[in-house]
Amino acid sequence: MKNVGINGYGTIGKRVADAVACQDDMQIVGVTKRTPDFEAKMAVEKGFPLYISAPEREGLFEEADIKLAGTIDDLYDKLDVMVDCTPGGIGAKNKEIYSEKGVKGIFQGGEKHEQIGKSFNSFTNYKDNLGADYVRVVSCNTTGLCRTLQPIDDLCGIKKVRAVMVRRGSDPGQIKAGPINAIVPNPPTVPSHHGPDVQTVMYDLDIVTMALLVPTTIMHQHNLMVELETPPSLDDVIETLETTPRVKLVEANKGLNSTAEIMEFARDLGRPRGDLNEIAVWKESLNIKDGELFYMQAIHQESDVVPENIDCIRALLEMEDDPTKSIEKTNKNMGIN
Ligand code: NAD
């Protein structure tokens, strides 16, 4: 049983904590918070030992009657790995601390690949990260692109990818982000950073991306144009995606016309927090024309990277050499496909 800590118990951190807790080969030995808010209270109620990452704020937790197990310094000795889920940019600074403490670290997509040194996706480069000390799980958008591009590349080879990505303006719990009434080219320059980010885990892929922000809080939506080496039949592509783990083909003609309806579907599936860890691909959007594959997909930004974090723990701690077995185990324990 491996001991896992979560530094930063927010949108991603609390989900990774729950996903660790439902595996049978790893356990949560501590999560950290800086603020004694409802998330801190619920972490304690779930039985996760709560450590403070800003010890000077300990009095605030006492006032809020939230019991601490100690400061973050007390947690390092108990860990096999720290999963850093702090806001983008902080993880790279924390890496220095983990290194001093002799603790392995997993970081999130808000960190720069160059600062962490290695990047990870379960389907593209699991084995390259076996036994590594510091690895970054690529962002929600990059994870979404890799989940569908890797099986297509395996099926028929990819010459090049061009993708337009429509991104949610903020997460549902964020009240200060936007836009509220605008479509924002983000960045207004081409390419966006997403293509190079995919290349940190699919090293030789020719990919160029453009991105926009829109006023929605739930799900990103991607539009892909993929030139194929040896174009297969459309049925072969459909069968491949239907049998790819963590990908779900959805049909507009069954009422799943939009990101809103897909999230409603996830709630109906009874998923924790109404999350959809899988990438939803609209079946009707799949088409091959002149050797080029077209499709549209939707990504639940708060949850798609969560199973990848679990596989990344197994790779770093060399608990499982075979990505397929880790993916199967993670999925079974999380109740996802
Ligand atoms: P968040 O703001 O929801 O949570 C961050 C948590 O870290 C909060 O609990 C905050 O109090 C805590 N924190 C802040 N500063 C800290 C510090 N110095 N030390 C310890 N804890 C600190 O952020 P998030 O959305 O969960 O994002 C975390 C990481 O995951 C980022 O790198 C982000 O880019 C990445 N990510 C986010 C999403 C998403 O859609 N939210 C998707 C994929 C990846």
For the largest beta sheet, what order do the strands appear in spatially? 4-3-2-1-5-6-8-7
Distance between the termini: 24 Å
What ligand molecules are bound, each kind once?
Answer: nicotinamide-adenine-dinucleotide
Report mean pLDDT, rounded to a whole number: 98
Q: What's the β-strand tally?
A: 16
Number of helices: 12
The largest β sheet comes out as:
8 strands, parallel
CATH class of the largest domain: Alpha Beta
CATH architecture of the largest domain: 3-Layer(aba) Sandwich
CATH topology of the largest domain: Rossmann fold
- In CATH, the homologous superfamily of the largest domain goes by the name NAD(P)-binding Rossmann-like Domain
Order of helices and strands: EHEHEHEHEHEHEEHEEHEEHEHEEEHH
Taking pLDDT < 50 over at least 5 consecutive residues as the criterion, the unreliable ranges are: none
Shape: globular
Domain count: the total is 2
Structural class: alpha/beta
Strand percent estimate: 15-25%
Can you give a write-up of this model?
The protein is α/β, with parallel strands linked by helices. The protein has two domains: 167 residues, NAD(P)-binding Rossmann-like Domain (Rossmann fold, 3-Layer(aba) Sandwich), CATH 3.40.50; 160 residues, Dihydrodipicolinate Reductase, domain 2, CATH 3.30.360.10. It contains twelve helices and 16 strands. It has an eight-stranded parallel beta sheet, sandwiched between helices. β1, α1 and β2 form a beta-alpha-beta unit. The longest helix has 17 residues. The two termini are 24 Å apart. The model has no long low-confidence stretch (mean pLDDT 98). Nicotinamide-adenine-dinucleotide (NAD) binds next to α1.
